[in-house]
């Protein structure tokens, strides 16, 4: 893994369920123990992606951008 | 009838009424024959939920003939026809149009005695509630769409969706049914809310005994929850009182938007066990008594 690379970002704006969850899961599987930013634009995606992340052992920090657009910061919890 | 019922009823004579319904949708499974079966089981269900007997049906087809091979449509219609045969329903015609998105379903006509129509409302204090199919088809279909579903679990969900509500309805006719509906897009709790909204009774639901398809809980925890399911919960939450600690996922499963779900039947408490036993004997294995009708709180559902 390269050092100093940009934070992993998953942009699923414009996609409806279950694609946001599927893409976030792929990013989690491909980048274990790394923080991930997910950009969503529905309340449903916010809820479902947060649920996935928590079940995988991440803390979720939610930042509302505008309307139903959110940035979710997933941070792996230290074991 | 003033409420949103499962089907329309028109009285022809003192002892005969027709019951009519129409339902069609886009594919929820990959296999065309299976989709035909699901669509028909789903469309007929509204008649069974009224206590009627479906007799004739017409196909409704939207098909992208320029993009899709006609053999796919043939398989869908075959699956539908076989399911109608199983139900003893005769296909008398239909109509198809060209459309970008494939859709299939039925217009169904059934018969019913005008004095024996089961409405959504009419549940009485002391009734027990029987649910005849497990929940979770919406969540499992979402997992399937996302390519994350286990084949065996999908097979169980399909078996549930293609099962006719015919036998359950016939068995219930032997009891005194106070109210009945089928569990579809609004989810189990959403339809239960319809049964008591604005009435002078309430319900208690025992969440731990509500039958759920295997895998549903796990997929729900992964966030594979349909948008409709989340909307169902948000819309009806003011009518729900949580009397026990229940996970967000469990509550969402109780609201999961179902395709071709089971019947939810309100029968007098003393008749419920016998009816349930008959259902189990007739291979409606997952049927369960999931709650009861109570005096208070009126117009609300207490989830225990």
Description:
The complex is a heterodimer of chains A (79) and B (304). Chain A has helices spanning 19-30, 43-55, and strands at 8-11, 36-40, 58-66, 69-76. Chain A is of the alpha+beta class and 79 residues long. Chain A has a single domain (8-76), classed as 2-Layer Sandwich (Translation Initiation Factor IF3). In chain A, helix 1 (19-30) runs parallel beside helix 2. The longest helix of chain A has 13 residues, at 43-55. The two termini of chain A are 21 Å apart. Chain B is of the alpha+beta class. Chain B is built from ten helices and twelve strands. In chain B, the strands form two sheets. Chain B has a seven-stranded mixed β-sheet, sandwiched between helices. The longest helix of chain B has 18 residues, at 32-49. Chains A and B meet through helix 1 and helix 2 of A and helix 3 and helix 8 of B.
Side by side, the strands of the main sheet of chain A go: 1-2-4-3
Largest interface, counted with CB-CB under 8 A? A-B, 17 and 18 residues
- Proportion in helices of chain B: 25-40%
When the domains of chain A are counted, the total is 1
- The count of DSSP E runs of length 2 or more, i.e. the number of strands of chain B, is 12
CATH architecture of the largest domain in chain B: Alpha-Beta Complex
Determine the N-to-C terminus distance of chain B.
Answer: 32 Å
Helix content of chain A: 25-40%
Order of helix and strand elements from N to C terminus of chain B:
EEHEHEEEHHHEHEHHEHEHEE
Rounded to the nearest angstrom, the radius of gyration of chain A is 12 Å
Shape field of chain B? globular
Work out the strand percent of chain A: 25-35%
Query: In the residues of chain B, how many domains can be counted?
Result: 2
The tally of strands of chain A reads 4
Q: What's the architecture of chain A, going by CATH?
A: 2-Layer Sandwich
Overall mean pLDDT of chain A stands at 90
Q: How are the elements arranged and paired?
A:
The complex is a heterodimer of chains A (79) and B (304).
Chain A: E1 8-11, H1 19-30, E2 36-40, H2 43-55, E3 58-66, E4 69-76
Parallel strand pairs in A: 1-2
Antiparallel strand pairs in A: 2-4, 3-4
Chain B: E1 8-13, E2 16-25, H1 32-49, E3 53-63, H2 70-87, E4 90-98, E5 103-112, E6 127-131, H3 137-145, H4 151-162, H5 166-173, E7 179-182, H6 187-196, E8 202-205, H7 216-221, H8 227-236, E9 240-242, H9 248-254, E10 263-268, H10 269-281, E11 288-294, E12 301-303
Parallel strand pairs in B: 3-4, 8-12, 9-12
Antiparallel strand pairs in B: 1-2, 2-5, 3-5, 6-10, 6-11, 7-10, 8-11
